[in-house]
Amino acid sequence: MTYFNKQPKILVIGDLMVDHYIWGESTRISPEAPVQVVDVKNENNRLGGACNVANNLVSLGAKVDLCGLIGQDSMGEWMVAQLDSLQIGIQLVLVDATRPTTQKSRIILSNQQILRIDRESKQEIPQDLEEKIYAILEEKISNYDAIIASDYNKGVLTKALLQRIINLANSENKPILCDPKGIDYSKYKGATLLTPNKKEAQEATQIKIIDKKTLELAAQKMQKDCDLKVSLITLSEDGIGILDSDDKILQIPTIAREVFDVTGAGDTVIASLAFCLAQGIGIYDACRFANAAAAVVVGKVGSAVASKEEILAFLNIKEKQNKKIIDLEVLRGLLKDTHQKIVFTNGCFDILHRGHIQYLQEAKKLGDILIVGLNSDDSIKRLKGKDRPINMQDDRAFVLAGLECIDFIVLFDEDTPYNLIKALKPDVLVKGGDYKDKVVVGSEFAKQTLLIDFVEGKSTSLIINKIRGE
């Protein structure tokens, strides 16, 4: 994971909320109606909406200013005091006596939310208030490394105001990330990126996302309609789908974790992405970091946040669990911005022996990153007969992953690695010495093709024949 190089300053503008939690137990049904009777054991307030985004950013280590509206009420007073205690800038938080501070009350039994009660106004703010907010931002925007528009459709981020803010951010070359709501995404046109979940993206694009192709079409439509620099869709436990420079969808996965509460997970994702982009970290690394952050917070109850240390620890666990055996699309994302020399080779590696080890060690010396394309079980059966492989693909991949010289292993199901080589476009394509004077499949996609001699008398077939006594 890329190391962070500075403490970014980020502006969050949008709908400010208080998440009110009522924690209780229920052991009986009311005699008045067929509903549970909740015995309240505890209740507390937490920052929600744009406030939760700001809280996530502070937890990550950013400097944060918040811009939005509160009512002239006790909840607003609580919010401002809480924000101030977290050292979140509140100079741009305005009071509007005509509307209440947005409050969402959730009743929790046994770590499960059973009811939510909302106190809020969804009325769009008047034009004079739009002008006041814009004038403040116009004066302050040069102070920030990134801007987040946290839209919960409560009336602060009107289409006119948001378009002016996006244009202002673009004129200052500041990344602006929007958490969208509703089905009219034209209000977000020109943003750096949006962070809709699958359901939101389906509603906005009118494309039912049922597979990778429809996910790709939805991301393409969003990018075209909204003129986005990056088009992505969050996929809950399936990670993030992002459109690459070839207009193809690249899925950056997360790993499963016990989920207690998804409240605020979207806030965590957009905060994490902005935190990374504000420091010049590439979008693929930013998505990996955001995935890990979301995985941490859904393992907690309530509008939770994740620290940078928690996220990096989670990433470290993930990388240790599955560091080398990797999906092609994920690998392409990891290599997207690299300037290291990529070496590729492939094979069955059915029974690992000295010849394999020496060959792979020599291949590694030719560059910085060695990728091994590993034939699947079905591929080997077609090539070598029904009695092969001796070892199944998961076992073969696991053994290869134990070799220090190998950086990544990608399984492929075709008879040749042609499509794999085409997708990776390695700097060096390596094959065994028995390919001398032969056409090497995929060589047209590599900058250089080199042959390495095998160790004489060492092969899987010879080992199998010896075991059989042949």
From TrEMBL:
Residues 1-319 are annotated as: Ribokinase. Its EC number is 2.7.1.167, 2.7.7.70. The keyword Transferase applies. The active site is at D267. The keyword Nucleotidyltransferase applies. It catalyses: D-glycero-beta-D-manno-heptose 1-phosphate + ATP + H(+) = ADP-D-glycero-beta-D-manno-heptose + diphosphate; D-glycero-beta-D-manno-heptose 7-phosphate + ATP = D-glycero-beta-D-manno-heptose 1,7-bisphosphate + ADP + H(+). Residues 8-305 form the Carbohydrate kinase PfkB domain. Residues 344-470 are annotated as: Cytidylyltransferase. Keywords: ATP-binding, Carbohydrate metabolism, Kinase, Multifunctional enzyme, Nucleotide-binding, Nucleotidyltransferase, Transferase. GO terms for biological process: ADP-L-glycero-beta-D-manno-heptose biosynthetic process; lipopolysaccharide core region biosynthetic process. InterPro entries: Bifunc_HldE, Carboh/pur_kinase_PfkB_CS, Cyt_trans-like, PfkB_dom, RfaE_dom_I, RfaE_dom_II, Ribokinase-like, Rossmann-like_a/b/a_fold. Pathway: Nucleotide-sugar biosynthesis; ADP-L-glycero-beta-D-manno-heptose biosynthesis; ADP-L-glycero-beta-D-manno-heptose from D-glycero-beta-D-manno-heptose 7-phosphate: step 1/4; Bacterial outer membrane biogenesis; LPS core biosynthesis; Nucleotide-sugar biosynthesis; ADP-L-glycero-beta-D-manno-heptose biosynthesis; ADP-L-glycero-beta-D-manno-heptose from D-glycero-beta-D-manno-heptose 7-phosphate: step 3/4. SUPFAM superfamilies: Nucleotidylyl transferase, Ribokinase-like. It comes from the Bacteria. This is Bifunctional protein HldE. It comes from Helicobacter anseris. The lineage of its organism: Bacteria, Pseudomonadati, Campylobacterota, Epsilonproteobacteria, Campylobacterales.
